Amino acid sequence: MDRVALRGLKARGHHGVFPKEREEGQTFIVDLVLGLDIRPAAADDDLTKTVHYGIVAEEAVAVVEGEPVDLIETLAERIAQVCLKHDRVQEVEVCVHKPDAPITVPFDDVTVTITRSRV
Predict the structure, then answer these.
(1) Degrees (nearest 5) of the Cα angle 74, 79, 83?
(2) For residue 101, which of 22, 29, 16, 30 has the smallest C-alpha distance?
(3) Is 98 a catalytic residue?
(4) E strands along 2-54, which residues?
(5) How many angstroms from the chain centroid is the CA of residue 97?
(6) pLDDT (tens digit, 9 = 90+) per residue, 84-117?
(7) CA 12, CA 6: separation in Å to the nearest integer?
(8) What is the DSSP secondary structure assignment for residue 87, as one 8-state letter?
(9) Per-residue DSSP letters for 62-112?
(10) What's the CA gap between 15 and 95, in Å, rounded?
(11) Of 10, 49, 85, 98, catalytic
């Protein structure tokens, strides 16, 4: 399966279990790897035979900016489902980064990564 990757999509969301996270919000970063067969698009140089990654990016950002959830696990699942609505996408890997998570020790990042497919 071929891969189309979008890395570092940034959006502000109000996700988290603590009131401060819900009130103030924070930046979330999303990486997507879409699995599909790009041979038909490449053969005909035809956008309609692949996935429009610009639209996928906008949809993923809209999920982050949308309805708040407690867990980034839930956020990742919602993003995966949006990606799989595109007919040509057979599989998606979603990594949600929460670099400003409320952790009391020094850290670089918190991530949740999931893989979902049509099968």
Answers:
(1) 145
(2) 16
(3) yes
(4) 2-13, 26-36
(5) 10
(6) 999 999 999 999 999 999 999 999 999 999 999 9
(7) 17
(8) T
(9) HHHHSS--S-HHHHHHHHHHHHHTSTT--EEEEEEE-TT---SS--S--EE
(10) 15
(11) 98
For residue 118, what are its two tokens?
Answer: 């049509």
Question: What's the token pair of residue 109?
Answer: 């990042």
- Measuring CA to CA, which residue among 30, 29, 41 is closest to residue 89? 41
Q: 23 is written with which tokens?
A: 């009130």
pTM above 0.90, yes or no: yes
Cα 32 from chain centre:
5
Residue 63: CB atoms within 10 A of its CB come to: 24
Condensed to tens digits (0 to 9), the pLDDT of residues 42-61 reads 999 999 999 999 999 999 99
